[in-house]
Specification:
Residues 1-24 are annotated as: Disordered. By secondary structure, this protein is an all-alpha fold. It has a domain at 21-58. 56% of the residues lie in helices and 0% in strands. It has 3 helices and no strands. It has helices at 8-12, 23-39, 48-58. The longest helix is centred in the middle third of the chain and has 17 residues, at 23-39. The chain is flat and about 30 Å long. The two termini are 25 Å apart.
Length: 59
């Protein structure tokens, strides 16, 4: 967990006109967050998918 999720230097070097499909990146990060919460002992099964759906609507 020592590597950052987003590299600031990479973001600064990208062209704002480029279209990037971030849905696969988002899904991968969400899956990792869910697994980390499970490892930490949280019961996420009942609410995680609802929270993710709400967050995606808000973005």
């Amino acid at each position: 967990m020592s590597e950052p999720l987003n590299d600031v230097n990479d973001q600064q070097n990208t062209d704002t006109n480029d279209t990037v499909d971030n849905s696969s990146n988002t899904d991968a990060v969400l899956a990792k967050v869910k697994e980390l919460l499970k490892v930490a002992g949280h019961d996420v099964e009942s609410v995680f998918e609802d929270v993710v759906a709400l967050a995606k609507k808000l973005v």
